[in-house]
Amino acid sequence: MIKFIKKYIHPKIYKLFDFSRIAYMNKVYSTYDEAAKACGLTPYQEDELIQVILLKTKNFIQKLETDTISVWPTAAYSKISIINPIIENKKEMINVIDFGGACGAHYFHLRKIINEKVKFNWVVVETSKMVDYAKELENEELSFSNNLEKTINDMSEIDLLHTSGTLQCVDYPHKYLATILNSGSKWILFNRLGLNTSPSDVFTVLYTKLSWNGIGELPEGFSDKWISYPFAYLSEKYFINEVKKNYKIVAKYEESSGTHKVNKIETIGYGLLCKLKDYVA
After folding, report:
1. Nearest 5°: phi and psi at 187?
2. What pLDDT shows up at residue 71?
3. pLDDT value at position 38?
4. I need a labelling partner for 7 at 20 to 30 A (CA). Which of 18, 35, 136, 201 fits?
């Protein structure tokens, strides 16, 4: 099929739609490492991706100063997750770990909505390279870390552990899930989850455009292009069983933006707000 398309479609059209990727988009791999090798993401591409996300975040911060604040469904779920910690916390200081929060867009968005009487200790946990770039955005409330376990241990108590579309993108999703569920955080928001209905995990590759990453338009000086990530869909049965060991699922949100089609495998997406079973406000 691919050879036929390439033969009979004009080269410029073929390049525009990049039909050559069709053969790989639905391929399933045995492990995360196999999927990672298929991506071939170079250090230069990674730097470029992070630069785009950083610049988009800076533009987003500026926009928050001048425009009416927009709240889309995924962002709304993030905002809802902070309500109980604010009500419960007598000290008016909310401790938040934002696992996979890029350059802190969740924090900046929330900071414009929540009254300044409420103070945050907000730590974004990201890759070492992302942290290096994002450090310039730190302030008295916001900081960045490249180590989830250390961040959990350093925080005396965690009011909310927030993660949005992150477990699909990490190299050891089971390990990170266990760390999150053993963190003792009073509340956890798993936003933009991507799971699958089979008994086993599914590893694949996600293809996106550079411009689709981060909030807003592609900054000047960058050319749009296809990039790819290794992607993991945990078994829904496994995931839910693990969550329910320590947490009660309080709310389930409709949110499928953390999924894509993978062969004939049924992938599902939603958000879950969870409360620590032993926690009493």
Report:
1. -130, 145
2. 83
3. 86
4. 35
Q: What is the structure's pLDDT at 105? A: 95
> What is the model's pLDDT at position 44?
54
Pairing status of strand 160-164 against strand 93-99: parallel
**What are the distances in angstroms from CA 44 to CA 47, 50, 51, 127, 155?**
5, 10, 11, 15, 34
- Euclidean distance between CA atoms 207 and 268, whole angstroms: 18
- pLDDT under 50: residue ranges of the chain: 1-24
Distance, CA of 189 to CA of 167 (rounded, Å): 12
Each residue's pLDDT tens digit, 222-255: 999 988 889 999 999 999 999 999 999 999 999 8
Q: What is the pLDDT of residue 69?
A: 82
CA dist 116 to 120, 156, 193, Å? 9, 22, 30
